[in-house]
Structures are given as structure tokens and as C-alpha cells.
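Re: duplicated header lines in exported C-alpha cells

Our pipeline writes sequence and C-alpha cells for each protein into one text file. With two proteins the header for the second block appears twice in some exports. Here is an export where it did not happen, for reference. First protein block:
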Amino acid sequence: MSTIPWITAAIALPIAAAALLWFVPALHKVARAYGLIVSLVVVALAIGAAMQFDTTRASEIQLTQTVPGSPRWASATPSVSTGSDSS
């Protein structure tokens, strides 16, 4: 089991990169190359996450992340109700 927060990193990296591009005017001149590099890193993170996925345990929740101090219910398995109960 990996300790790298794959999903969080794949979401946070583009947001952080966009904020950095916004606040550092010198990056505006190389914005295309910068965007390409950030995109390739995000693809690499997605590939890393896919490599960590265990297909033999596909019915289980995988690639989870627990934040210290988070409430116990926050890590519970989500459930979906369609509202069409037969009772």
C-alpha cells in the first residue's frame, strides 16, 4: 500500500500551478511550456495511481487518504439513496 496521496496531488497540483502562474508575471512568457509540464506531471500522477490500484480487490475502496484530526464519519463509506424505497 502506498502512502502517496495520489488523488489529492493530482487535484492540488494544477490548482497550485495556476496560482503560481497568476502571481509570478515572469512565468507568463513561458506559460505554454509551463502548462505542458504541469499537465505531464498530472498524467504521471494518474499513471502512478493506476499502478497502485489492485484489480483483485476492485470491489473495495482503494487509494484512500486519512487526514489526522478528521472526524470519524468523514472516512465512512458513502452511500447513495435513490428515494424509491418499497416500504
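Second protein block, exported in the same file:
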Amino acid sequence: MKRLKLCPRHFALWITCIGGIMKGRISLVAIMTVLSACAGTHYQKLGVGGGYSDKQMEPGRWEVRFLSNVASTEGFAEKAAIYRTAELAQANGYPYFQVVSGSVRFNTHAIATSTSIGYMTSKGQTAKLVAVGKREKNSELNCEGPDRSACANFDTAQVLNELRPIMKQAGHRRPVKD
């Protein structure tokens, strides 16, 4: 079989089509990370470029995380985590949910090459929250985290209706500043 160059010469990367073996100094993961940073994070299950992950801690209680990349609009990770929680609440028959713990932090990404591992901080964000499904609209707040301002009650249908247009956009790019 013939070996093909998939990248222009100035990138100095040689890729063998058969077997997908990299012959260069940059790993496929590093290339994908750089390319995914060009577009804002889509609302999607966690993958290259970010997305949501969730786990049911017990019936009606979930931990939800959303990882956004550097090109995503500010606050998108938090909105996406709340939206995902609303989807879970609806799927489990809860008309309301309560965020009992939450945080948003800047991401630190590990970059690996064939010769080293490095870390860089970007303006991407990770939103993490713990939520409980509720049957009543104005349930008493049971805040569990140190940041009491993160705790709130939400109407499941209202969150889905208000955030759906934002979550279904093609991508969430920060405006370019001159």
C-alpha cells in the first residue's frame, strides 16, 4: 500500500493511512485538541472538544458536568449543565429540580507529545453541579456546597424551553475582539 501525506509539508507531519501510525512529534490527541479549540463546544455528550457527562448518584439525584473549550461563550458550560439536568429531571418525571451544589472553574488541559507532557490553562470552563428532582415548585433549599449562591430551584419545562435554542446552535464562539 502507498503511504500518503495527509497534512501540508509545512506541518512536518507524516501519517500512514494503513494502521493510522503517527510519524512525528505531535500526537493525534494534541492535533484534535488544537483543531477542536477553533470551534465552540457543542451541546453534546462528552467527547473531543468538550460536552456533558452525568451520573445518577441515587434515584432522583444526579451529578452533572459540562466541559467547554476556550472558544465557547462565557457562561455556556453552566447553562449546558443546567440544561442537561432539566433533561434528566424530565426523563425521570420531575417537573422541578433543585441544584444543591455547584461550581464553575477554569480548565487545565494536559498536552502530550512524543517527548514530553505539559499543562496549559485555557479560558474553557468546567461546570459541575449536583441536583435533586422535585415534585413541588417551591421546595425548601437544601444547599450542600460551600457556595450557597449556587443553590436554586428550577422549573424543568421552563429551563428546557428557554435554553433549547442556545443548546441547539451550531457552536458557541466567543466574539472576536479587535
